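User: Hey, my collaborator sent me this sequence without any context and asked if I could get a structure. I don't really work with proteins. Can you help?
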Amino acid sequence: MPTLRRREEGRGFAKRTLGGLFAALLIAGTAGAYVPTSSTVPAPPSAAGAMPEAASPSVNGNASASDFDAMVQRLEKRERDLDRELTEIGPKLETVEKRLIARGRQYYRLVRMGMLPVGGGFDGLVDHATKVERLHTALARDLDLATELRGRQQTARKDLRVVRSERAPMLVQREAMKQAQQALQEADDRRDAFQRAFGESADPPHTAVYGADTGPLAADPSSKFAQMRGRLSFPLAGRAVVTHQDKATTALQLRASRDSAVRAVYPGTVAFAGETDRGITVVVDHGDHYFSTYGNLQRLDVKIGDALAERGRIGWVTRRGSKPPLLHFELRRGNSTLEAGPWLGL
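Assistant: No problem. I've predicted the 3D structure and written it out in structure-token form, which is a compact way to encode the shape of the chain:
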């Protein structure tokens, strides 16, 4: 009984598989090498996807340089993603194609055998039919995968060409916009400088001064600070605009035209160097209870106890964003403030 049951099961399996085998044998007899194709292969989905709307923006006259930077960055990221996808697809597709060739050859050999396995009896024929059917399924699966990978590869290459064609003119436009903005800024700076020097202004009264950084020193080694009224060295080299902070103070605000070194107006010793309500501040003791104060520094080049010569470098004032370099300068004798302008010859 068990033997009879196995034979019945074998006949049932043969009925299910021999149909496919005989159809394959007929095809092999009417054609050469045969590689199956699936009639229901779906259209391959694009892993690359369509170009995002933000990657191909319409540039208008109101776009800023930062907008262009953001657009270019998105395109560059898209380009990197597509390059990475193409790099990953290549080896996968090569592996699938090699496997397709190997399985196709094996399938062809099995099909060309035709009815030869009949000599091995019913069981040999069933085993042969099973191998053919499994190989047929594997070939169809590989073919679907190869089709999908080729579709993704083609789409990614197309998207990459679009990205590169959009990025190139955008780089040119961004550079042109930066140059135009720079030209406008330079024009504004020239107009502001002319207005400060020659035009009327709502700012406090101001004077354009050119301080010396080289040349003969004003202080005689035997002179005292009290004898230097009107002859002190200017604390900034180059062009600077001098304004009074307000009518209630004798201090001066010195607005430099560029990043500038701050110089001691007279020989002395650093009595203080650190943070105050005026930012980084240096106080220099010139003897006889005379002190000069330099505030709003951005960089410090001295420390307490350092000896300074006339025009010795104290630190730096620098531009901060759109704000020009600005030095707060004042003179004191003991606890009393002195009007700084006349001591500088202003």
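In plain terms: Residues 121-198 form the longest helix (78 residues). You can pass these tokens on to your collaborator as they are.
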